[in-house]
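Notes to self after the call with IL:
- keep both proteins in one doc
- input above output, always
- annotate only the second one for now

Protein 1:
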Amino acid sequence: MSQLELNSDFEDEIDDFATYFADVILPIPLPGTYTYRVPRSMQEGLQIGCRVIVQFGKKKIYTGVISSIHTQAPKVYEAKLIMECLDMHPSINENQLKLFHWMARYYMCTVGEVLNAGLPSGLKLNSESFIQLNPDFEEDQGEYSEKEEKVLEALASNDRLSYQDVSDVLGIKMIHPVLKSLIQKGRILLYEQVKDKYKPKTRKVVFLDDKFLSEDQEMEQLFEQLEKKQKQLEVLLKYLSIIRLDEGLGGDSKVDKKELIEAGLSDSAIKTLIKNGVFHEKEEIVPRIQFKGKNSDSTIDLSEAQEAALSGIVEGFQANQPVLLHGITGSGKTEVYIELIQQAVESGGQVLYLLPEIALTTQIVTRLFKVFGADMGVYHSKYSDNERVEIWNQVNEGKVNIVAGVRSSLFLPFDNLALIIVDEEHESSFKQYDPAPRYHARDSAIWLAQLHQANVLLGSATPSLESYHNALDGKYHLVELNQRFGKGSLPGFQLANILNARKAKRMQGDFTPELIEGITAALDKKEQVILFQNRRGYSPYLICNDCNHVPKCQSCDVSLTFHMHSNHLVCHYCGYKESVPAVCDACGSTAIRTVGVGTEKIEEDLKILFPEAHIQRMDQDTTRSKYGYQNIIDRFEKGDTDILVGTQMLSKGLDFDKVSLVGVFDYDRIVHFPDFRSHERAFQLITQVSGRAGRKDDQGKVVIQTGEPEGALLQLILRGDYKGFFNQEILERSNFRYPPFHRMIKVILKHKEPKVVQQAAQEYVAVLSAELGRKRVLGPQTPVIGRIRNLYIEEIFLKMEKKGVSVNKFKDLVYQKGLELKKKKDYSTLRLYFDVDPV
């Protein structure tokens, strides 16, 4: 791509007769779009949705997207020229642009922030700074430092140097003072080269000339010619064995050149055959992600209950309603999904299958590929930038009709969506927290389905209260699937009283006798065990026995978590890490002990208690690699792992035949978390993780360790009484004006000075209370963790009735008052943003 000097005058290129302008969405957190002049050379080819390179400000270069083309020049500023168009055909379609604008409006952020989140990194260009000698510089007798001389010497033998090149030449990272001095002296120029991040993967292939495959006589003569050229003959024979000529493959059959070389054949022999016209060589683009074809034997036989559920779902679709499928764990919802996907694809439509987390995609995707093969793609953050771009392009070109992915899959360029499935719709993982847009994939999927006139299906064994309330209220069509698929039955529960066990001194570490007995029995029968602890690391924190000092993060108001494997204390909010102290930082005592238990500690204790068992841990620390989830799950499915310890990712729809026992740690902490959704989360989490037990002929068992075995919520979980839980919880929500009866907006304010953020929050509350009424404004309040990354935090909660209040006017007022607050001199560096429908 050509170099683009930031200091050059692009306006010189403007044709006086060019009258077209384009509104461009830029991936920046500033409101609105920006108008640029369209060069005459682009006027015929430029389309809405195309990516363009534009200059913003004096030095910044961005990849923007055309949102409209018109003839109205901007009134406030002079439009710069579009520097380059990157697309022959639009990368963003009309429906995507509508989604971007809706999301920005609903979730109270800028359309640029939505674009930045929606467009894969590989489709956004980056600009890299370079320096070159100033060709107009006149020699002088100026003095230069030693570092400056080194840079000039390097430029004398190189046309340009990148920042990294300069850093390497000088052997230092702080190069800016040196470059600034050389620019001021007029010796060098700074410019930027824009680079396309996406590069297609290619391979070199070889193939026989057509005459050898079409005429037997020519092939015979070729063998005679190569009879004494052993190495060339070996290449020919290997090639023919790969393309299986006897099976009738034509002369266009290509073989990867690398495959021939890796088979031990001579590279020079291959080159000679190409030179002599026997083989031809060419480079071709190949997909980075290649899936095997579908298994023709993959037929699905639905049970009577599943058939009834399928009929109910179709009935809801025909009524043009979102459908909520409330199916208990193990009821076979996935088989119903597959049947619906087949129907949608056969009718010519596209399907989006949304999953809450990558851990869940591993098993589901394997099952889907057996049915649909290469007709489907997968889209999630573990894929590289280039891999995600390829899936994006395949959807855009209509090569992929089914996509399974996490929440970001919503942004893919679908143009004919027929069905969206949101599996485990209750999961909080569908909510984006940071950065903006702070959207909920389930709610956005419903809006996207309306845009495409597509059907949408929400599925869960423990629906969110909002979704179930919508179903009872008639907004959604409710379908229930209340029996397990096949011979499986719901697990039995056993409560293990931690307090009694501790008093009787019968605990073994953090294991009650009941859990130890259950694990022993399962291992004796060659069955598998899942242990759930929703806290990673070895121990939540360290404490000094003598002075009670707890090591805390330097940047966040949170204790550091002890990770034994790396022997570090780690902050799970900002990533700060430090070595484990030998003595207390406060008093110098060596009496430091761990408090609490995480997945790493459980794993270590299990190795001592059950030395013969094969144990694995599945949490964020063990699944960082691209195939981390898949490797752990594959080993467990094959039976190579006896006990799997993990966090909440274990609860999300995984299906293992040999699991007979599930153990739950720390139930009490989950229930008593200070949040109005804590009971809902506890019910969902324990029910879901319990559902991993007893999938085949035998009834599974769940052991819950708790200090409150008589708790009312726990009794509802034991009975699997979702409706009883819903009726109890919905009454609380109504009494205290929480969702689903009121909408909520959380306002987050951050500043490096605690007094500034507290004062700003008080002023904002006063303004909003005057406009909206004090009952609708709660706070300000400091959250449980009041400082993260050295920024102090205050929160304000806004409650809005679902009837009688204009949502857009309410949000516009809140947003505008926030902008007015930030314009004040004292709050110019204040960070203020909104979380609509927080979870």
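Protein 2 (the one to annotate):
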Amino acid sequence: MLRNLCMLLLLSIFIQQANAQQRSCDLILQGIIVDGSNKPLAGAAIRLSTDKSIYHTDRNGRFNINRLCPGEVEMQINSLGYEEVKRKVMLPANEEIRVQLQISEMHVQDVQVTGIQTEHITSSRHLIKGETKQEFRAKPLAEMLSQIAGVNQLNTGSSISKPVINGLHSNRVLILNHGVRQEGQQWGAEHAPEIDPFTADQLEVIKGAEGVRYGADALGGVIISTANPIHRDKIAGRVDLLGQSNGRGGVANLRLEGGVSSIANLGWRIQASGKKMGNLRTADYYMGNTGVEELNVSGMLQYDFGKHDVELYYSHFGTDLGIFYGAHVSTVEDIRTNIERGRPSTDYDFSYAIGSPRQRVDHDLAKIKWNYAISGETSLETQFASQSNRRKEFDLRRVLADDVPMADMNLSTQTLNVTLKHGHHRIGVDGMLQINNNVPGTGTTPIIPNFDNHNLGIFAITQHHWGKFHGELGARYDYHYFDVAGYRYDYSNIDENGVVRQYLLTDRRDFHNWSGSAGLAYHASSNWTIKSNIGLAWRAPSANELYSDGLHHGSGTYEVGDPNLKSERGLKWVNSMLFKNERIALTTDLYAQYIQNYIYATPNPDSVRQTIRGTFPVFNYRQHDAFFYGVDVQLDWNIAPRFTYALKGSLVRARDLDNNSYFPFIPADRLQHSIKWQYGEPTENYIRLAQTFVDRQRRFDPATDYTNPPPSYQLFHLYGSAQLPIKNNRIQCNLGVENIFNVLYKDYMDRMRYFTHQMGRNITLGFTYQF
């Protein structure tokens, strides 16, 4: 009996110990992975010696591994572009694990170009430097991006600009605003992107044809605007204040972020910015009605719980833009006289007032993004976004009041993106529903009709890595359904009073096509990397290219579309060579692109259109096969311990293969270089002298323009930066003098060059306080 009791007691103790051991295998290992600058590394891979699973850090660089047993465990941490780290941890751990990864020399070029992301390992990708963002933070987005070699601007006067990548712009350049494909009335040459640069912590440009990853239209390249993860440890923020002499205006920005103590893993961010400028001035005269007013707000919430990450984002962009008075004239003789004179016939004074003609644009964007870590390297990412773009264009009215818009367009867009990721492979489905409505009551016939646009795409991308070689392959199929209803003029049917009759236009079009991409990156040595990427992309013609027949008030032009246009198909090949050592960083991009059925608007010098509101130059949409090719060079050279020389140059050539001629509005040869002297300890203390040289566009067709391209010009600029101590923090101060010698010049890429010059000398002074 005693023996049985002893056996029962021993068995009870054994079971209790086993249960205790089982219960103890429920430990949690938490931590954060950062880079050499203490910035979180998203997507870093973590392997444990106790199992075969692979864990990944979230967007904040954090990881949370459950169901671990007591004892010693070895962690192996890897991230592309960084040295591998191994660390032993004794569980249970009393505090959060923090691991810092150092840049790998073998992949230093990819780290410089792509940061912590690995999606474009074979593409030509360029990041805007923090120094450039500080100097240009009050400028339009396109002007900031033009500091990258190969990126230019298409201007409408000195206050409206669109980015141009390797000669292509508008609908051929996609912009991702916080992960959402920006959808506004981007078909207009004077419709600037509705994005506040202050919302972007990183601005990147990809020069390849990225039709697979981002869908149709990405023939020229992609611009990516992203924000850093929210820091939840404390209340942090920044204040930006900047004033400028030309326009006698300024810009202000405020941003705050933090966490919620009562709700773990919840972060918030709010931001607001405003701008006000008056009439801008050339070297000799004021440009009447060129003021700008802008007010923008945005907010973000990020919440992580277990395997789920949720992000909510909202932004509102609102602006009033004046359109130069001199572009709107009354008679044929006036327009020809103004083009021949090349400058306004009227003297204007400085004013903050914005009168007609002008634009009022409001763009709202809202998104919800959910990322679910299924297991190991597998995750599912879903994003829904809604955008509303309201564009009003005002002109001088003879019948209705001037505050009634001549054009009132409301574009609403809903997008849904679902992507399944497994390691370096991903498949996804994208859908878009877009509706454009012309709001009635304008008293005019809209330049573009009402339309519904339905898009559906499916894609797959895979990456492979073999030592020094990295490859990427992708394919995509897109289907577009386009349904329009509106009015067009019938110039063969004019009544006895000389009024052109109209007819009801209804049309349905289907567009569908394949896209593909293939790329290879080779790390020849610790200093040299060679990349080659070839991409096939396509674009359906937009509503204005097909159906426009009327006055485009914002640009002061009369546009005529062609309903028989076909889809564009472009094949772009980009070859990049990157060199970097302790003193020199050199990037060279060689590219060539064949575009079948290239669509473009060309001035018709033999025709102007006289309306009740004045007389305007006519632009017709045409279509021919095109061949683009060129080279971009970017060099940074530390010539001495405190002196740095920088050079950026770009050449682009574009040929009309059908007519053996040239296309209009292709950037001329451009060269920028600067010398910077760094003084004091912080790298933010410097003085930089820069020169910009733009050659005359010598490759043009005189039969497709109103006047010859303007002469070449060169400008000199001076920039200075200093960090000023204040209590336990610092204020960064930036001073700039642009166009030091107040040169009177015109730029070929300015659609107002027929009537006016570019902006003259401008002095800027800005302060940034971060806390």
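Annotation: The first helix runs from residue 2 to 24. The longest strand covers residues 584-611.
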